[in-house]
Amino acid sequence: MNRVLYTLIWLVALPAVLLRLAWRARRESGYACDVAQRLGFFRVEPAASTLWIHAVSVGETRAAQPLIAALREAHPDARILLTQTTATGRATAQALYGDTVALAWLPWDLPWAQRAFLRAWRPAIGILMETELWPNLIAECHHLGVPVVLANARLSERSARRYARMPALTGAMLQALSGIAAQTAADATRLNALGAHNVTMTGNLKFDLAPPPDQLALGQRWRAALGARRIVLLASTRDGEEGLLLPALQAQLPDDVLIALVPRHPQRFDEVAGIVAGCGLHAIRRSERTLPGDRDPVWLGDSMGEMVAWYALADVAVIGGSWLPLGGQNLIEACAAGCPVVVGPHMFNFAQATDDALAAGAAVRAGGPDDMASMVVSLLEDLQARQRMANAGRAYAAMHRGATARCMALIEPLLAARLEQVARDHRR
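The structure corresponding to this sequence follows.
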């Protein structure tokens, strides 16, 4: 009954969902591609076996890299299907994997659309990244005998409270999962409290992502070209944050410091350029392929797939998403690249990783934008402190590796059992 009501809500909302998709397609053309797939219409070539990973957007798509590599090594003849729901996620997948994986949209969570998706692709296993919990999808997988693993699972206290308002729906959904690979003990505890079974703490897959050497080299080339100029990176900023952070830095930074500003969402690049101008600052855009001059105060990172290069360039990185109650962004990438990190008060989506980085000396936490600016100035004036934080960040990232192997230990028995069952059914 709970799932019926949930489906009815989806049906009522579907016209608004379609209108929102059309509106987003005006700003990001990727949303206009293959719209029929979102309703369950697919043309699929047959394959001996398909291993399916769902990664909603950019962060999850990147986090899936080591898992996809391990699956490809263990099952070289299998087709790997990667589904997303956002255009930026799909663009990231195309850049990372090219034609080595099949790409599709995950349908909206209507039972017949999810059933059509599963019957078209016939996955041997489904791996949902992080917090992608869809009741009809999981129920249809359970009905068709497709094992589903929630990998790199994380659940903040805020999200746990939201799921707890629907105990019957949430409990049934979590209990239908074949396994859950939780990032931390706190995530595992919250999932268990909501009714989940088969929860294993495996760690965070993002620690297994080594910084790409070509991106590190690109950042180092930028740094060499900019000479002795010091650089502060505003990394993965989100709506409303630039107007807080830029004035705070303007008030305290020496004039020679370059602010590199990389918004989280590409559809905001032009908007953020306007915010920079509104602060009385001139921005050079990365898309112009021109390096900032000595008098240019801001370099706007309006490109995709270069975050590691920005971390390799910067003397200090200020992590976005943490200055308003948005949950923060991933700081592991910055630490692995050896970039000192300043976070704000709202890192609840990355609470354990943040606490561990703070304890390791790889990051510092500011109470607000003015406090952040003071910390940044202090770090810019203290080369030894930055070097200590850089070394601590690399050590912190290295110490937490190994989640991929632990996830694979959970996935492989489920996959082997499913493939054997499919083979038995075929022999009949």
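DSSP finds 18 helices and 14 strands in the chain.
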